[in-house]
Amino acid sequence: MPHSTSTFIDPKGEANVLPSSQNRKKSRRFASVDIANSENIAREAMKKALKRAHNNQEHAVVAKTLENHGNTEIRRSKEPPHQKAERDTAEAELKTAQTFRQHKQRERSIPSPPIAQITISRLRRDMDMDTGEDNLKWERMLTTVRYHTMTGGIDWDLRWKAQSLQELSKIYSAIEREHPVLRRFRGNWAVVYLVKKVFQDHRRARLRRAHTQTAED
Question: pTM score > 0.85 for this model?
Answer without folding.
Answer: no
